[in-house]
Amino acid sequence: MNRLVPLLCLFALIAPAAAAQIPEPRGEAQALLSGAMADSAVPAMGLLIIRDGQVVDTAVHGVRALGAPDPVQITDRWNLGSDGKAMTVTVIARLVDRGLLDWSTPLAEMLPDLAAGMRPKYRSVTLLDLLSHRAGLPANISDLEAFWPFFDDDRPLPQQRLAYLRLTLAEAPVGPARADSVYSNTDLIVAAAIAERVTETAFEQLLQDEVFGPLGMDSARLDQTPGADEPRGHVDGRIADQARDGNPAMLIPAGGVRMSLADWARFCIDQIRGEHGEGVLLQDATYRLMHTAQGETASGLGWGVVPRIAGRAGPVLTHAGSDGNWYALVALFPGSGNGVLVTANAGESMGGDAAALGVARAVLVTLAPPVAETPATP
Description:
The structure is a single chain. With 378 residues, this protein is an alpha+beta fold. The chain is 32% helix and 15% strand. It has 13 helices and ten strands. The strands form three sheets. Strands 2-1-10-9-8-7 form a six-stranded antiparallel beta sheet, with helices on both faces. A hairpin with a 2-residue loop joins strand 4 and strand 5. Helix 2 (85-97) packs parallel to helix 8. Residues 1-25 have low confidence and may be disordered.
């Protein structure tokens, strides 16, 4: 079940809408994908390159599903896994900007119906703690026997999330709050439940109303199973049964949105522009907060925030995501307006992570200067 865990191999590299219109391919992206897939088991990949806040090249390569001839299309949707966490954080941030939530309110006050059953150490946790993975909550529920029924649960998703949280908030902390960052999908489920309580609206609708709609991300979908004419996820050399090999729908706030490369770029470009006072969705200070590492960690709000990546100078906003059947990663340089998005319709068992990271490395060297060498001490 541990599909949405952080893909920290990306960190091992460390020592409005019109801006994302699809350009005519220049060949660079296509060549990189072809090379990466030459000796790979990944059926298809996608790549999009951003320079100066504009999409300058994009390409896809391969087939939508093993055993079928249909080539992947530039407008096809990819499952972004945990890369959707930044979108979830953006929903929460918009509610804070609107005065419906506050970054520092204790969890026991935000979810009073769950307060009596939660561990005492969780009661003072804030939104900032949750969204930077510093709440001390476990990554996922530890009792798998209690988890599997969520795949077949037909209750409304907000009710499912509350049922999940009654279990997870009763589990022992994995560490103290406001200390190290310990990546947790549960953190995002808690935040979504808080948003649902204050708005009386399902989080899936909030994503549409607060992020997808305002940015014109028309391809975005929250159902986990692709249609017959869409790319399919793959695992262990076969087409994935997304309903069983992936995650239950109630985990959407932690990751699993599906969309085209162009629509993902719309969101990423708005994040970049927010650093320059030109964002559409949030107040300027809120973008900066999202992009600021909290405490002594490399975790911002929905983003990894690091000073360098693959030997290239940052600061850099990064994330990677997978449900085991797909892989997607992003690295953005807000200062220059450059970035790279890479997708694969196969997970780690078929080398989707390695292929995507290889493509990302090749692009990153063109997007930022190398890290300056520190002069030797005399």
